Amino acid sequence: MTNNTRTDETVQAFLEKLKDRGLRLTAQRETLFRVIAEDLGNPTSVQNIWDRTREVDPSIGIATIYRTLNLLGEMGVVNIIYLSDGEFRLDVPLQKIHLTAFCRHCGALFPLPAEDEKQHTLEKWLEGTGLELLPQSVAVAGLCTECREALKSPDALPARRGPLGQQGPCLRRRCRRMGRVQE
Amino acid sequence: MTNNTRTDETVQAFLEKLKDRGLRLTAQRETLFRVIAEDLGNPTSVQNIWDRTREVDPSIGIATIYRTLNLLGEMGVVNIIYLSDGEFRLDVPLQKIHLTAFCRHCGALFPLPAEDEKQHTLEKWLEGTGLELLPQSVAVAGLCTECREALKSPDALPARRGPLGQQGPCLRRRCRRMGRVQE
DNA sequence: CTGCGTGCAAATTCTTTGCATGCCC
DNA sequence: GGGCATGCAAAGAATTTGCACGCAG
Questions:
Q1: Structural domains for chain B
Q2: Cβ–Cβ under 8 Å, residues B55 and A147
Q3: What is residue A109's three-state secondary structure?
Q4: What is the 3-state secondary structure (H, E, C) of A152-174?
Q5: What pLDDT does B82 receive?
Q6: What is the DSSP track for B32-82?
Q7: pLDDT at B127
Q8: Which tens digits make up the pLDDT trace of A96-114?
Q9: Distance in angstroms (rounded) separating the CA atoms of residues A172 and B152
Q10: Phi, psi dihedrals of residue B177, rounded to the nearest 5°
């Protein structure tokens, strides 16, 4: 699982972008990005990523995880889609829209096919605004068949992973000092 | 601005749902929900909501804001769309999709018209999955004309409110103990 | 060499919770 | 009255940052 072509390409692309921006290629960055690249598109969390990273390099600190994740985001190398309960999904923008449906009750993911067509539709929707569609991941919530069944009673309890309760890794704020090219 | 019909209706609907679930109608809950209802769809934050709430009732505690916001989410009365930098947008699900476009660079919002048609499109997209589309707000990122201009140089700095750096109010976790009807 | 990036730990910020009290039903 | 909801303050989580050091360029 550590070495399929797709993963390598993704890691390569990342390293390249680092170089382009005059940033340093460190072992930690490569390790972390490989871990991420191996599990693109699946629900994950900062903890989970950190854990898997430490299996390769036990010395890596959590601060580096946050810093690098922030860096990746700032560089536009990954997109984040928040699921809920502190989990999120990372995607590499392929210059395309990545649309995913998920069940708001059980959290199951349903990747949707034919992304190209959907991209065009979205572009059309944006036409009036002057916006140019960016590569990104869009998540659409639904209720899957099973959960619909389970929720038949009008007053069924809300989902364990409720409509609210979404939370992201909070990769943000004012740390944007690091990793800047010439101002 | 405190008393338009639309707002009142929204507040009413909320109070009703509270009653339906056997929860109590308190002054704080009404105040808070009115504040929210008055500013639906605009970028906001927990702080901002708390501030505006205290203008009406200075004694209200921030814990109540969090508790009530969580409650609203659990009850499905509001949807949250995370923007970035700790801001989010609250929407009342109108049994419809609420689609908004925003500029990832400057954060400007572009509401999209003709929601009905878009809802149908999304429903069609979900067809294979067995999912039933839920009322929700979906945000699509783009680059507005001006920012596109400003970013012409290939190595322009990333947005102040970067692609990452999204963070929500984190209304979540295990407080889901409160406000339950009969188990 | 130079200084960027790292690990570590402390600091911050954000959110939730325990408890005593007040108020809705 | 009885118990849910609140305010307050303290606890807990999650994330960021200061600092000294090591390594990439």
A1: 1-92 (1.10.10.10)
A2: no
A3: strand
A4: CCCCCCCCCCCCCCCCCCCCCHH
A5: 58
A6: HHHHHHHTTTSEE-HHHHHHHHHHH-TT--HHHHHHHHHHHHHTTS-EEEE
A7: 81
A8: 566 777 666 555 667 677 6
A9: 25
A10: -95, -30
Contact check, Cβ <8 Å, A173/B104: no
Search chain B and give the residue with CA nearest A77.
B163
Phi-psi sector, A86: left (phi>0), alpha (psi -120 to 50), beta: left
Mean pLDDT by 10 residues, chain B (183 residues): 72 89 94 90 84 96 92 77 59 64 64 74 82 70 64 37 28 24 16
Burial label, A154 (beta-carbon count in 10 A; 0-12, 13-18, 19+): exposed
B155 → chain A, closest CA residue: A21
Q: Is residue A152 predicted with pLDDT exceeding 60?
A: no
Chain B positions in Cβ-Cβ contact with residue A80 (cut-off 8 Å): 163-164, 166
**What does the pLDDT read at residue A173?**
26
**Burial grade of B38 (CB within 10 A; 0-12, 13-18, 19 or more):** middle
Give the minimum alpha-carbon distance from A49 to chain B in angstroms, rounded to a whole number.
16
According to the model, what pLDDT value does residue B164 have? 28
Whether A144 contacts A105, CB under 8 Å: yes
Residue A149 CB coordination number (10 Å):
9
pLDDT digits (tens, 9 = 90+) for A10-36: 888 889 888 888 899 999 999 999 999
The C-alpha atoms of residue B141 and residue B144 are separated, in whole angstroms, by 10
pTM: predicted TM-score of the whole model, two decimal places: 0.61
